[in-house]
Amino acid sequence: MLEGKKIIVVMPAYNAEKTLRKTYNDIPMGIVDEVLLVDDFSTDRTVELAKNIGLPVFTHERNLGYGANQKTCYREALKRNPDIVVMLHPDYQYPPKLITAMAGLITSGMFDIVLGSRILGGKARAGGMPLYKYFANRILTFIENIFLRQKISEYHTGYRAFSKDTLINLPLLENSDDFIFDNQMLAQAVYFGYRIAEITAPAQYTKESSSINFRKSVVYGIGVIFTSMKFAIQSLGLARFSIFDKDGKKIDVS
């Protein structure tokens, strides 16, 4: 625990056999109460290794997608009544040791969500982020900040910490089961007034780092723009969308 708050780390996994143990070993277990892994039908030994480490493992019987994986992560974490849930990819792209700092910003009572930004600090390219990904990240973030009227440095990081109330109250089940889930979730958080902080999270890109191919990157980019447009349109009262419906489908933890 940290300041009496229960912290659970969730790891959405897909073919993470080569990096899982290294990621797990760097998690600050002095403050983390539990680590859960959800496997989205990996074809390697991810599940076997996670069980050998001693992690509670939840598996999908077929590949459902990154968004669906997160939905399972948060549902299983919320069943354990945490105060804070941190999502950490098991590919060792993000530094696990920052969990303490991220959780601390939420225990302060000042923030509901904390993002580990690869852009803050200006070391994304030094960490190996491909040039095309860097420029796409900057362009999409620029567009989103205009539509969402924010000054966030990066909307596309997979390193995130959430308060329990945030995960319970956002209509997360209205979101996609694909990669755009991440972006929809942040747009929802902004729309409903949740307080977002960022910290510098230097990333490492290796051949084991999870990534999406060019075609999926294009689909994701289009989805980001459409999500931003929906946000702006609903904010102006011109139309309504299910992802911004306060009574939309939420994660059931009963």
In terms of DSSP E residues, the strand content is 5-15%
Q: How many domain modules?
A: 1
Can you name the CATH architecture? Answer: Alpha-Beta Complex
Instruction: Please bin the fraction of helical residues.
Output: 25-40%
Taken in chain order, the helices and strands follow as EHEHEHEHEHEHHEH
CATH class: Alpha Beta
Categorize the overall geometry: globular
Radius of gyration: 17 Å
Q: For the report, how would you describe the main beta sheet?
A: 7 strands, mixed
Structural class: alpha/beta
Overall mean pLDDT stands at 96
CATH topology label: Spore Coat Polysaccharide Biosynthesis Protein SpsA, Chain A
SS summary, helix count: 8
The count of DSSP E runs of length 2 or more, i.e. the number of strands, is: 7
